[in-house]
Amino acid sequence: MSTTEADVRAVAATFHHARAHHTERKEHLAATVRNAYADGATEVDLAAWAGVDRMTIRRWLGKKK
């Protein structure tokens, strides 16, 4: 089976869409984390809930160290 230019373009478009969707979901998760933190959640609880490490939570919250 040979790969045509149309096949390559279709795969590239699918990849681009998936990457954009991933970025949107990550931004939404970060906003949700910021809102929960403002409501009193701890960084440790947020990290466990979001499935990321605490340093990621701190980065999303705009903290340095």
Describe the structure.
The chain has 65 residues and is mostly helical. The chain has one domain (5-60). It is 75% helix and 0% strand. It has three helices and no strands. It has helices at residues 5-38, 43-50, 54-60. Helix 2 (43-50) packs across helix 3 (54-60). It is rod-shaped, with a radius of gyration of 18 Å.
Largest sheet descriptor: none
Summarize the amount of helix as a percent range.
over 70%
Report the sheet-strand fraction: under 5%
> What would the average pLDDT be, to the nearest integer?
92
What integer value in Å does the Rg equal? 18 Å
Question: Any idea how many domains?
Answer: 1
DSSP strand tally: 0
Summed up, the helix count is: 3
Uncertain residue ranges = none
User: Oligomerization state of this entry?
Assistant: single chain
